[in-house]
Amino acid sequence: MSHHTPHVKTRGGRKTAVGNVGRPPVSWALPGILFFAVFAIVPLAIAVYLSFCRWDGLNSPTPAGLDNWTRLFKDPEFRQAAWLSLLLTTVSWAFQTPVALLLGVWAAGRQRSRAVLSAVFFVPLLLSTTAIAMLFHALLDPNFGVIKEIGPWFGIDPNIMGSSTGALLTVAFVGGWQFMPFHTLIYQGGARQIPEVLYQAAEMDGAGMFRQFFHITLPQLRHTITTSSVLMIVGSLTYFDTVLIMTKGGPGTDTTVLPYLMYRTGFQTYDLGYAAAIATALVVVATALSLILVRFSGFGNMRSTREGM
Q1: 220: nearest Cα among 235, 202, 206
Q2: In the chain, helix, strand, coil percent, each to 5?
Q3: Separation between Cα atoms, residue 162 and residue 147, nearest integer Å
Q4: pLDDT tens for residues 279-294?
Q5: Across the strands, what pairs with 10?
Q6: Terminus-to-terminus CA distance in the chain, angstroms?
Q7: Are residues 236 and 92 in contact, defined by beta-carbon separation less than 8 angstroms?
Q8: By the 8 A CB rule, do 175 and 234 touch?
Q9: Which of 36, 64, 71 has its CA nearest to residue 50?
Q10: Mind listing the pLDDT tens digit for each residue in 128-165?
């Protein structure tokens, strides 16, 4: 009987098995799995259960069958909120992705001022969403805010929050202003992993900065773009505190996105069973969009070339 002996290399006089190097055991993931189960899976299961019940938050839930779900698909307010959530997500992605990508690639360089400017740019990420929403709410007040003074200089109506388009774009801008540094950091890390030899070869072939960006940087960052986009989509679909503080779903219902509709249904009208159905539908939509993006981007087939090292 022959026995397979893994390749052995000597390191400082000691023998180290190389052939068996691989992933850590599953036990390493148990703390994370338990944390995820307690704070994500269990609450989600409770929300799904409540979506089939009538509950006012005070008395015990009573079974309602499919009543909440039937009402959900017939509710024009839910359809409008779903459309606004998708629109806000699209605008946020289109605004944040190009800017974060360019800033991340720039921050990965060796410019003398890079460290200082990057530190200043990352400041919004350290602030709470509530504080940022209150700050912009004060700045954009049409009567007392800065927008009253400087808005006319740039052709901006001081009452920008009074229009449906202006209010939605403002929410997208405020969210982007806060979280763009996070995505910039992701792109910065991805750009630093691109082999320098690719750029050196491109320079020898006479490729300029723009050709290097579109033919080397962008293709090398395709999986980074997918990662950032998934996080951005999930984050945009769950905008709540910014909407609550800045617009309260207004003007009218023009910024009543799904999370705010869920809050209003559950904690203002005390229809927590229907609110749970909205929450479950939001999870399904966010998960479906993320899976579609991962599927068609090829991200699921990505394998690390450094795994086990």
Answers
A1: 202
A2: 70, 5, 30
A3: 13
A4: 999 999 999 998 898 8
A5: 15
A6: 32
A7: yes
A8: no
A9: 64
A10: 999 999 999 999 999 999 999 998 898 888 899 999 99
